[in-house]
Amino acid sequence: MLILYDGIFVTMDEERHIYQNAAIVIEKNRMIEIGGAEEILENYKNHDCSRISCKGKAVFPGFVNTHIHTAQSIVRGVAEDLGRAPSYTPTVPQGDDLSDEESYVFSLLGAATALRFGSTTISDNYAHAMINAKAFETLGVRAVVSERVHDMIFSRLAEGCYERDVSLGEALLEKNVQLLEKYSNPKGRITACLGPHAPDTCSRELLLKVSKLSEKYRVPITTHLAQSAMEITRVKDVYGISSTKLLEECGLVNEYLMGAHGVFLQDEEIEILSKNHGQIVHIPEGNAKAGSIARIQYMKEQGLNISIGTDNGAANMIENMRMALVAGRILNHCVTDPSPEEILQMSTIQGAKALHKDSEIGSIEVGKLADLVVIDYDRLHLTPCINVVGNLVHLGLGNDVDMVIVDGEIVVRDGKVLNINEKELMRDARRIAELKWLHSSPGLNQKYTYVF
What we know:
Layout (H helix, E strand, L loop, with lengths): L1 E9 L7 E10 L2 E7 H7 L6 E4 L3 E5 L1 E6 L31 H17 L2 E8 L2 H11 L2 E6 L6 H4 L8 H17 L7 E3 L11 H14 L3 E5 L3 H11 L3 H7 L7 E5 L5 H9 L3 E4 L1 H6 L6 H6 L3 E4 L8 H16 L7 H8 L1 H6 L17 E5 L11 H8 L5 E6 L2 E5 L2 E2 L4 H19 L1 H6 L5
Parallel strand pairs: 1-4, 1-5, 6-7, 7-8, 8-9, 10-11, 11-12, 12-13
Antiparallel strand pairs: 1-2, 2-3, 5-14, 14-15, 15-16, 16-17
């Protein structure tokens, strides 16, 4: 049993309660009582349990990161300036270029960073998904995993050519099915979903097969949707329709669909998504760095559930919250919309809803799983604190995360990820990255070489 006490508790429950000088009692992996700190400490004074003071800290529901490719941490600091997604870019180490061992290292690196910055749940889609899932098990993070399914050859795609390989699509889809079968327990920390890469990298035939599996397994479907002009042009040229219309015709636009990016969505596509209860995953930092941003306010007005994902990069949900707020206000020409509270909703309870886990995670409520983030507000840049949510979104830093609890287990404490050796992991990642970048893009390595 574990008791957190004397903190500010931002619940994100239906009434959006915020409690001061409160306490939470955690038994096994669930929150069993929330109340005043003095009363709870008195009631449990004779119980065998750990007690952790959160004085000067605020406790939030764990952040739900609904779109990430952890193994693409290998492209940090480079992908941001490529001008298009790494999968579409030549000379970038791709998922298929990584061995199982290498993919494990970079999935561990990407997920550890996400966890360190407060993501208690991640939705990860990439190659070698079975291996990646093992990395998530090592860390103790909650994860929804899927294989990157496509039947267009990525090495040719990077050259600007769409070349289909039917056997490739079938093999990747089978890997996804194996994930679904292995991680079939909905109460497990690791679960699986379907991962068709994008409407332009999956043929109609492959999308129809994904749709049939969706009817069988009834799990989330994560994909990239309207993420690039290249995608839009390709789908229009081949099928004469939009990406969203193609997915709708294949039976994939429903409450399970999580379309990431959405920066090129037209009004009629948003209407299709709204009518069929499809969902959008906002990628604020990645898209802003590429010079674009999704029309989240309009989508929200049309009734879409919007969550936030970090995609590549540092997997920093706090930074992505701030980028979502700033970019949204620029797009809306408004100094108050969206609000910090709306952004936090997207990062917690709405993310849980996107994954169909909102009955278990996404808010601090009795009976829910104990997935929590403790943030240290005893910092110069967070002082004074008049509005705890405003301080988080406007001023918070990833390094302000002090403790992370997943499924009742402390997995980050004093800002350190507990289930790994961080120094050894960074050493392994640097070694592999140097070799991979040297092989795939020797010119880049001749220009930039940094040894630590």
